[in-house]
Design a protein that fits this description.
Layout: H1 2-36
């Protein structure tokens, strides 16, 4: 049971990190567009 719980926690953490990375990448792209204008 503990192993399954750990696996679930890892998956949740990965999904949260992926969301943060997407937000950061998106914000960086917007900044680059502003600089190019």
């Amino acid at each position: 049971m503990s192993c399954q719980k750990c696996g679930r926690y890892v998956l949740l953490a990965r999904s949260q990190l992926a969301r943060r990375l997407k937000k950061v990448l998106h914000s960086e792209e917007l900044q680059q567009e502003d600089q190019s204008l």
